[in-house]
Specification:
Rossmann fold, alpha/beta, eight-stranded mixed β-sheet, single chain, 10 strands, two-stranded antiparallel sheet, 12 helices, 341 residues
Length: 341
């Protein structure tokens, strides 16, 4: 899934980032107008790094929304007010995007754990106690980072088409994720540089040769197939802050196997493939069958690693499930939250 999001980055960058804000309308000056009923503030999470935080108000337990790759918290401008009828709703724009600070990548400052720590810093600053965290797409890695390290900080986790390989890694999956597998291989090779006892060195080298590299080779062959049919998009603008952030996040993806918090995982299964198929019914059916098999395999792995997890499959939904299937998502979220302590 990360691969699909990154392929979309060129279009987002060429559009001047307007897709990331998703404004509600246009004013007399031609500038975007944000008519969503929220307040905006900035919270310092570390030196020289401030994050944009939206507050839609509402009463009830706190609920915090995290956006996917390239998007900011304003992607929820229409969805959040529906939630504010039952919860106190916040949104956080991660570093590197929207109005939040975009520090230059350096020493893991865009890793999944660093991004998760940013969320925790916001919660501490605003005095938000044990919220429900809701993440779309890439935000699944932030949810898993927090849920695996600090489960006591949250009441529950809700993955909106987000419990994918960057949030829960299935090393037995038929189709790998090049981003996650590349990060894993890089980490294993770096570990071989340090002096190790012969027995441990042998075990690690054997794992690289017999498991990691063959999996990486499989990923590369699949990527090659995809590039053969992909349009030749122009490169992004040089040294673009958003592109730097995307590259850093992808490079610093981490591996998570389970979380210790109650969780709800909502998947589009299969994803709506009408646009991808170009209107060809046969191609659409083939794409959807392949996608459904992949998503079901991932959902099964998530369920196995997290036996108490609630998993919901929404047929023919868009990746932005909270837009294409708003009523379904609201219903499932409310039912899940009702079970939380």
């Amino acid at each position: 899934m990360i691969r699909k999001l990154i392929s979309f980055a060129g279009f987002c960058l060429l559009s001047g980032g307007m897709l990331c804000a998703q404004p509600s309308g246009t004013g007399e000056t031609g500038r975007p107008v944000d008519s969503s009923p929220h307040t905006v503030k900035f919270v310092t999470v570390e030196k020289d790094v401030k994050l944009e935080v939206l507050d839609w108000g509402g009463t009830g337990r706190p609920l915090v929304l995290l956006a996917g790759m390239m998007f900011d918290a304003h992607v929820y401008d229409t969805f959040a007010p529906k939630l504010a009828q039952n919860f106190h709703v916040y949104g956080i724009t991660r570093r590197g995007f929207g109005a939040s600070s975009a520090p230059r990548p350096d020493c893991g400052n865009y890793s999944a754990d660093r991004l998760g720590d940013d969320v925790l810093a916001v919660l501490d600053n605003l005095g938000i106690d044990r919220p429900i965290l809701v993440g779309h797409s890439l935000a699944g890695e932030e949810l898993s980072s927090i849920g695996s390290r600090f489960p006591e900080k949250v009441a529950g986790l809700i993955y909106l088409d987000a419990a994918n390989s960057y949030a829960f890694y299935d090393d037995s999956a038929a189709q790998g994720d090049p981003s996650v597998d590349t990060a894993d291989v890089r980490s294993e090779l770096e570990q071989l540089i340090a002096p190790l006892p012969p027995k441990e060195m042998k075990a690690r080298v054997t794992h690289v040769l017999e498991v990691s590299l063959p999996r990486m080779e499989r990923d590369l062959k699949e990527t090659l197939k995809e590039t053969e049919s992909a349009p030749d998009l122009p490169p992004p603008p040089p040294d673009n802050p958003m592109f730097r952030s995307i590259t850093a996040i992808t490079r610093e993806v981490e591996i998570f196997s389970s979380v210790k918090s109650p969780m709800l995982a909502i998947y589009a299964a299969p994803h709506d493939m009408r646009q991808a198929s170009g209107g060809d019914p046969a191609k659409q059916a083939t794409l959807e069958a392949s996608d459904l098999a992949r998503v079901k395999e991932q959902a099964k792995a998530v369920q196995a690693a997290n036996p108490t997890a609630q998993v919901v499959l929404l047929p023919h939904a868009d990746h932005f499930v909270f837009k294409s299937n708003e009523a379904d998502v609201l219903r499932e979220m409310k039912a899940f939250i009702a079970t939380l302590q």
